[in-house]
Amino acid sequence: MDFNRVKAEHLKTLEQYVPIVARVHGGSHPEFLEVQEIFEAMHKKLKAAGNEKPELISEFQQLREVTDNYTVPDDVCESYAAVYKMLAALDEAY
Question: Could you read off the pLDDT of 9-46 as tens digits, one per residue?
């Protein structure tokens, strides 16, 4: 799958969901605060790169470690699960 297409599909939603999920679940799932930091770093690189493909290998490696390969915890909302699904789709497309 084309990275730019997946990025276009998910980036706006991730921009909205990540801060909300961090606020709602950060207390009980501190790993999501790490996900938020990594996403913000990726977001800066994506914006700076424009239509080019930025270097995101280390960010995706960190995300896989922090999220246990995007495994959604049992006690979270659909938005949390959606964030992991979108990040996994970006990772796969990358």
Answer: 999 999 999 999 999 999 999 999 999 999 999 999 99
CB atoms within 10 A of CB 91: 19
Nearest by Cα to 14 from 90, 93, 67: 90
Q: Are 45 and 54 in contact (CB under 8 A)?
A: yes
Q: How far apart are CA 25 and CA 23, in angstroms?
A: 6
Residue ranges in the chain assigned as alpha helix (H): 3-25, 30-49, 57-66, 78-93
Compute CA distances 30 → 2, 9, 23, 67, 82, whole Å: 31, 27, 10, 11, 18
